[in-house]
C-alpha cells in the first residue's frame, strides 16, 4: 500500500515506516556504529557523517529492499543514496536540535532524509518533532539565534513555529521516518540519562541535476538489494 505513503508525504511532508528494521538489525547497526566511532576516534560531538563510507553494513542498510520500494514511490524510479550520519545522544549529551529545514544545508534538488531509530525514541530522550505540512511553505529564511555555540548554523526563528501544530514523533527501535527537506523539524534534548541513537540517511532523485557534494563520498544508485 505504498500509495498511502505518497498521499501522506505530499500532504504532511513526512511518513513513518514502522519496524523497517527488526530489533536484531537495529542492535547490529548500533553495535557497528560504535565500532566505527571508536575506530575514527570520535568523542562526544554527537554526530558523525559518513557511515556507509566507513562500513559495508551501513551501505547495505541504505539499500534495504522495503525502504527502497517506498522511496521509489516518493521520489521516482532512480533513487540515489548520498550520505548518512549517526546521531548519538548518550547520557551525557543533553542538547536537542533547534527548529530548522534541511534544504539550506545543500540546496539544489530536493533531498529526502530517512531517520531510523536505533533506540526507542520519546520526548525524554530526544525524539523528533515536526510541523506537518510546513514543507509546503517552501524555502523559509533561517534567522534564528545561533549564539549558544551548539552548531546548527541554519535555524528557524521561534516566530516561524506554531506550537499548536507541532507533532512529536515517538519511535520504536527500528522505525523509520522519511521527511522532505523543507519540513520544519527539531528534536528534544536527551534528559533521560540513557542512549538515544539514530541513523539518518539522505537520498535524492537521480534524474535531477545537482552539484558535486563533497560530503557524498559514498553515493550510489540504490537497487533494493540491501539487508
Please give a handful of descriptors for the protein shown.
single chain; Jelly Rolls; 10 strands; 22% strand; three-stranded antiparallel sheet
The coarse silhouette is globular
Q: Could you name the CATH class? A: Mainly Beta
Question: What level of helicity do the residues show?
Answer: 10-25%
Domain count: the total is 1
Mean pLDDT: 92
Name given to the CATH architecture: Sandwich
Q: Count all strands and give the number.
A: 10
Order of helices and strands: HEHEHHHEEEEEEEE
CATH topology: Jelly Rolls
Q: Tell me the strand percentage band.
A: 15-25%
Uncertain runs are none
State Rg: 16 Å
Structural class: alpha+beta
Count of discrete alpha- or pi-helical segments spanning 4 or more residues: 5
How would a crystallographer describe the biggest sheet? 7 strands, antiparallel
- First CA to last CA: what distance? 21 Å
The CATH homologous superfamily: q2cbj1_9rhob like domain
